[in-house]
Amino acid sequence: DVEPVFGFMKAILGFTRMSVRGINKVKRELGFVLMALNIRKIAAQRAVHYKIHIKKADFYQIINRNQLFTLPKNLMSQAPS
């Protein structure tokens, strides 16, 4: 959908009007705004991934503290470290 993008531009960035004239300049300015929205989206995705990673690390620390068994995190995780 296209409409949510313009809603985010208006609500989050406060971007309601172009500050330049000319098609090329407007395209450039709109490109900067869309880049800012994409960076915001990437930062949100990384924050979610970081929180999940921290929860996994806490789980392994709890297991190691209780001395149930000790395995390196490399063997337990599927992602390469």
Order of helices and strands: HHH
Give the termini distance in whole angstroms.
36 Å
Summarize the amount of helix as a percent range.
over 70%
Mean pLDDT: 72
Percent of sequence in beta strands: under 5%
Give the class from helix and strand content and strand pairing. Answer: mainly alpha
Annotation, overall tally of beta strands: 0
Using only C-alpha atoms, the radius of gyration works out to 22 Å
Shape call = elongated
What is the count of DSSP helices, taking H or I runs of 4+ residues? 3
Task: Explain what you see.
It comes from Staphylococcus aureus. Residues 2-42 form the Transposase DDE domain. This is Transposase. The protein is an all-alpha fold. The protein has one domain. Helix content is 70%, strand content 0%. It has 3 helices and no strands. The two termini are 36 Å apart.
Jot down its keywords.
81 residues, 3 helices, mainly alpha, Transposase, Tnp_DDE_dom
Write the layout of secondary structure elements.
Elements: H1 3-11, H2 23-66, H3 73-76
